[in-house]
Amino acid sequence: MERRERFARTILNGFESYFADFQNITLAAKSRFENADWHGMQAASRQRIDLYKEKVNNVYQYVELIAGDELHNFAFWHESKRVYESLIQGHNNFEIAETFFNSIYCAVFKHRQIRNEYAFVFSPQGDMPPADVSKVYRVYRLQDSIASLWRTLLEDYAFTTPYEDLDRDIDNIVGVIENYLAPRFDLSGYDVECQVLEHHFYRNKGAYIVGRIVAGEDSMPFVLPILHDEKGSVFVDTVLFGSDKVSVLFSFTRSYFLVDASIPSQYVLFLQQLMPAKPISEIYSAMGYNKHGKTYFHRCAFRHMQSTQDQFNIAPGIKGMVMCVFTLPSYDFVFKIIKDRFTPPKEMTRQQVKDKYSLVKRWDRVGRMADTQEFNNLAFARERFSDELMEELRKVAPSVIQEHGKALVLKHVYVERRMIPLNLYLQDCDEEQLVDVMDEYGNAIKQLAAANIFPGDMLLKNFGVTRHGRVVFYDYDEIQPLTDCNFRTIPEPRTEAEEMASKPWYTVGPNDIFPEEFRLFFSGNQRARKVFDQLHNDLYEASFWQDLQEQIRSGYIEDFFP
């Protein structure tokens, strides 16, 4: 067998091995849910995230031996890519296989010289395989009654763990449909049916049945969350109707689902029909294919750049001490670059910041931390960067940028969904919005804490407000496990001199945290602080945090459902 063919086949075999192992980890989610094995569910989720890098590293070792002195020869890669193209022609999952090839290429060239001649910057087969989504859903037609339709559906999607009270669950579902859906959705016709994805979606302590109700030309997305009572039975917790609620469930702020999808693109296309506003890249990521989500995002971003003329500008809000943040007005994302030198009192290193961002992917983000895409050596047209932004980049991150004539290369950059910084949101919100967003802010902190995440820097500017009104944390340079923190109450001064002293009269260890000082996060916005104090005053008490630590150390896993 010719060397280039062996080289290409080795990469494809590596992909097939990765995909099989990915599926095997995913398939075990059902039994873990049935057995209420929440620690196992978390471990499996982390294992699946780590799997990709492990497989890429393994394959790299083999292709290095096969290629020999041709490993860094671009002509060799060009020919090998052509062979690989022929091998995956018509492959059910060719788009993910292409991404795997790209990962091997980047492992060799360290994300340099990424050209379509040598890697799959764009796919010769199109962005996605041709898909018939009807192959991945079951159809339940309205025949006798709505109740009998849902009974059949729930029996088909039953677990070895019995339903706690199936009749009650059906009554609740029918009640919601009659009270919420029927007034705005005609369910009286003969053509009413439910189209339901064939497999459950699993995440943390929940299982989800995902589908849509179709009546003539109208359709309504729905999700049935199934929860475990941990006493030997399961129950339907609620019904989520509408694209917005389904979109929150599949949010970029949550950990990835485990779902048995042998051809992921079919599931992605069906889900995209339920959530038309959600980028396809995020749906791939939500199903655990975050590397391909990154590939898809890159292609869409490139096309957007080609179709627009606006310039990148410094993102609105207070400049960060660690990151330089900029955005393109016409694109719903922000770009973040680590500064060369951090503004005091920040003392961490660049690598420590990168490690924090990597950690976020492996943590359960509980709907309160934004997922990020990490890129190396991204090339842009220099003219798309405003003069003000270029001046800022040259000043704070000269080592990260390379100017080559009309081109600008960013050596390392994070990309995440754009949100309204909380401090800016508060400037324009009315009283009702103020109460809602301050409640969200407090809940975000509490939910992160219950997931063993301490945000560290909880200034308002480090949180954003999504289009759904949810408050999300997005500044990760000071995050750490909650259990690593030492929460203390500030000691009472023993003398008048101590009370009047400008510096603390007590010793402070490196992990000591004094919740009473959290009020400083509202400096300059007493209106917001007043509302927050009414809603979440318990966050100022050291005992609140200590109790959470004990709960986590005892092995209890909290979950927060949308």
Give a structural overview.
43% of the residues lie in helices and 17% in strands. Helix 1 (3-27) crosses helix 5 (94-109). It is built from 18 helices and 21 strands. The protein folds into 4 domains: 3-109; 133-288, no CATH class; 308-418; 421-553, Transferase(Phosphotransferase), domain 1, CATH 1.10.510. The chain has helices at 3-27, 29-34, 38-67, 74-87, 94-109, 146-156, 166-181, 243-249, 264-274, 280-286, 290-307, 350-362, 387-396, 422-428, 431-450, 496-500, 526-536, 542-553, and strands spanning 137-141, 192-197, 201-203, 206-215, 218-228, 234-236, 240-241, 258-259, 313-314, 323-327, 333-338, 373-381, 401-404, 407-417, 420-421, 453-454, 463-465, 471-473, 480-481, 486-487, 512-513. The strands form 5 sheets. Strands 1, 2, 3, 4, 5, 6, 7 and 8 form an 8-stranded antiparallel sheet that branches. Strands 9, 10, 11, 12, 13 and 14 form a 6-stranded antiparallel sheet that branches. The mean pLDDT is 93. It has 562 residues and is α+β, with helices and mostly antiparallel strands. The longest helix has 30 residues, at 38-67.
The count of strands amounts to 21
Count of structural domains:
4
Structural class category: alpha+beta
Tally the helices: what do you get? 18
Net shape: globular
Which sheet architecture does the biggest sheet show?
8 strands, antiparallel
Any idea what the radius of gyration is?
Answer: 26 Å
* Gap between N and C termini: 54 Å
In percent, how helical is the residue content? 40-55%
Overall average pLDDT:
93
Low-confidence stretches: none
Strand content: 15-25%
